[in-house]
Design brief:
There is one protein chain. The chain is α+β, with helices and mostly antiparallel strands and 273 residues long. 18% of the residues lie in helices and 27% in strands. The chain contains three helices and 13 strands; from the N terminus they run H-E-E-E-E-E-E-E-E-E-H-E-E-E-E-H. The protein has helices spanning 5-35, 190-197, 262-270, and strands at residues 44-45, 54-59, 62-71, 74-77, 89-93, 106-115, 130-134, 161-166, 181-186, 207-210, 227-230, 233-240, 253-257. The strands form two sheets. A seven-stranded antiparallel β-sheet has the order 1-9-8-11-12-13-10, with no helix packed on it. A six-stranded antiparallel barrel has the order 2-3-4-7-6-5. The longest helix is centred in the N-terminal third of the chain and has 31 residues, at 5-35.
């Protein structure tokens, strides 16, 4: 109990100020939690004559996944992008705009599909990689080039600035886009990535993590199969993110580590797989 009226007034003011500060702090926390990572992709249109190895993997002439050219007749994509159908997959190269109404798209039919033998249904089981052999060699020029891939177990280091590109969604509830989008992302220490995902499930082996985690940039649906490019080398394949709405809480985007599959890629290309 206060000894005088002035002390009571002072204590009352202090209590009110304390309550105000607590409410302000609580409101700030709620605001941060409700908006953190809610913005999608945060990318931009790819520059002209860039990312010439990018491929749009299509089914019935509709974009389904990304991919990238590593050989004049082979494209790398994600295994979960495969669609079993009488209609063969096709791949479009050489244009950042894949508007299906265009009649000048360079389309190549897929001759055969090579899914990693250890892949099981669902990218979260790992081994999310496939090679698409085309019916004919791609004509290489200024618009179409081959992507560099890493050597065996040549893993990318954490905190490296990279790029991810694709024709996937740019906002929740929106459809895929016609113009190739690219976003800057940084690689994340695999131990940190595993820790963040631990409460959901255990990450499969041979994966990389980049983007989304504590940022507003990353891959979304429709970007699967596209490359994670660091220092001019395609080191990863877009595999999965936290949810289909592409909202980004503290869960990094997950990529297949290409360096772990270099031997298998060589065997497929040389016909010894």
């Amino acid at each position: 109990m206060c000894e005088s009226l002035s002390q009571c007034v002072l204590q009352s003011c202090r209590m009110k100020m304390s309550h105000i500060l607590l409410l302000a702090a609580a409101f700030g926390i709620l605001t941060c939690n409700s908006t953190h990572g809610e913005e999608i992709i945060n990318g931009h249109k790819a520059k002209k004559n860039s990312l010439q190895y990018m491929a749009s993997v299509q089914h019935r002439s509709i974009h389904k996944c990304g991919g990238f050219l590593i050989n004049s007749s082979y494209v790398v994509s994600a295994a979960h992008c495969y669609i079993k159908s009488k209609d063969k997959l096709s791949v479009v190269f050489g244009s950042h705009n894949i508007d299906p109404t265009r009649n000048d798209l360079r389309r190549y039919e897929v001759k055969s599909v090579h899914i990693h033998p250890s892949y099981k249904e669902g990218p979260r089981n790992g081994f999310d990689i496939m090679l698409l052999k085309l019916t004919k060699d791609v004509v290489l020029n200024k618009k179409v080039k081959i992507a560099k891939i890493p050597k065996k177990h040549q893993r990318v280091k954490p905190n490296i600035k990279c790029q991810v590109a694709g024709w996937g969604k740019t906002k929740t509830g929106k459809s895929n886009v016609n113009d190739l989008q690219v976003a800057d992302v940084s690689t994340i220490n695999i131990a940190v990535c595993k820790k963040e995902w631990a409460n959901v499930f255990t990450l499969p082996p041979d994966v990389l993590c980049a983007g989304a985690y504590k940022t507003k940039s990353g891959a979304c649906q429709g970007d699967s199969g596209g490359p994670l490019v660091c220092n001019g080398v395609a080191v990863g394949i877009v595999s999965f993110n936290y949810n289909q709405n592409c909202t980004y809480p503290n869960f990094p985007n997950v990529y297949t580590d290409i360096s772990a599959y270099s031997d298998w890629i060589k065997k497929v290309i040389t016909g010894h797989a």
